[in-house]
């Protein structure tokens, strides 16, 4: 495999889908407008135009193309997916009290929490308007379920935060909600709008689900060993917020009494002191939690690539396979 291709498959996918992506961006700009509340496009533009990769809408466009779709409803669905994603980011940054997103100050920091929440609500409403315009009840069902699952995953994460009894299965349920649900819905609706055979629709869902899980596990690992310049978020944010992500869950499972007391203090009660992040990183390394988490991410990426076997052979399928490899290759 060409090394450059392995590193930047989303760029190749964006080039292949350039015309469709331009239509999606134009539709996003048109639908995020508000005649009566200019703050809505201001806040939305800050996030939508912040240099994100448009990964989720690209998945919808790619799935539709792979299944031979020739209409234009896939553009509406791709914009829908991006609006749902952007709305959840606006809400997440308020909940997490985040100050940085994609290397820039968050909307809640530049404006206020109220603006972020209300603009997020507006984008959710816009997303449902777009879904309805496709005239497909099945598409509406898939994306409405995804929106509910995302919220459910966020609430589950909130209740699991600082709870040292959180298991890997609960973590996986959270990840399926907060991340994989939108990935799998994005790919699935691309197949549905193209009237693809059911085995292909199922394969697209399975691909998106596994890709989303691999993506989130990789993100959670990078929180402990990443480069904030490259990731656009502060290293240790999850630690400071008391999130029980996979590396920490694995380390706690292997902890002795003293280590467990440390985790209870810094995560369970949130009483953190200078140097605690360094100590946590040392414990993660000592118990092989970082390597084990990395192995899990690669296994999910392999699952995503295997799901593509049921789909037609085409350059876009190869790019989707490369994309699954790329989301974990950034861990190397």
From TrEMBL:
Q: What class of enzyme is it?
A: transferase
Annotated GO molecular function terms are: transferase activity
| Organism per entry | Seohaeicola nanhaiensis
Keywords per UniProt: Magnesium, Metal-binding, Transferase
The protein, known as: Polyprenyl synthetase family protein
**Positions of transmembrane segments:** none
**Which PROSITE patterns does the protein's record reference?**
POLYPRENYL_SYNTHASE_1 (PS00723), POLYPRENYL_SYNTHASE_2 (PS00444)
Q: Does the keyword Endoplasmic reticulum apply?
A: no
| Origin: domain of life | Bacteria
Q: Which family does it belong to?
A: Belongs to the FPP/GGPP synthase family.
- UniProt cross-references to Pfam families, sorted A to Z: polyprenyl_synt (PF00348)
What cofactors does the UniProt entry give for this protein?
Mg(2+)
SUPFAM superfamilies, per this entry?
A: Terpenoid synthases
């Amino acid at each position: 495999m060409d090394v450059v291709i392995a590193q930047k498959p989303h760029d190749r996918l964006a080039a292949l889908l350039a015309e469709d992506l331009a239509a999606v961006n134009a539709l996003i700009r048109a639908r995020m407008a508000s005649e009566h509340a200019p703050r809505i496009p201001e806040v939305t533009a800050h996030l939508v135009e912040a240099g994100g990769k448009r990964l989720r809408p690209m998945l919808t466009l790619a799935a539709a193309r792979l299944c031979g779709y020739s209409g234009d409803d896939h553009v509406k669905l791709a914009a829908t997916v991006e609006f749902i994603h952007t709305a959840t980011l606006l809400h997440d940054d308020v909940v997490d009290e985040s100050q940085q997103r994609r290397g820039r100050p968050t909307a809640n920091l530049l404006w206020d929490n109220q603006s972020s929440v209300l603009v997020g609500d507006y984008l959710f409403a816009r997303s449902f308007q777009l879904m309805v315009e496709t005239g497909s009840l099945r598409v509406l069902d898939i994306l409405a379920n995804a929106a509910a699952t995302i919220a459910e995953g966020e609430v589950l994460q909130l209740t699991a935060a600082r709870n040292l009894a959180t298991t890997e299965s609960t973590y996986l349920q959270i990840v399926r909600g907060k991340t994989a649900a939108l990935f799998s819905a994005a790919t699935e609706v691309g197949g549905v709008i193209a009237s693809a055979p059911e085995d292909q629709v199922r394969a697209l869902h399975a691909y998106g689900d596994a890709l989303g899980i691999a993506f989130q596990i990789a993100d959670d690992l990078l929180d402990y060993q990443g480069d904030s310049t490259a990731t656009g978020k502060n290293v240790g944010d999850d630690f400071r917020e008391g999130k029980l992500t996979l590396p920490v869950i694995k380390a706690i499972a292997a902890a002795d009494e003293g280590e467990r007391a440390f985790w209870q203090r810094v995560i369970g009660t949130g009483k953190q002191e200078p140097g605690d992040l360094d100590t946590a990183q040392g414990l993660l390394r000592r118990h092989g939690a970082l390597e084990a988490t990395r192995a899990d991410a690669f296994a999910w990426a392999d699952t995503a690539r295997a799901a593509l076997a049921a789909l037609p052979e085409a350059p876009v399928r190869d790019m989707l396979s490369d994309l699954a490899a790329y989301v974990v290759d950034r861990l190397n």
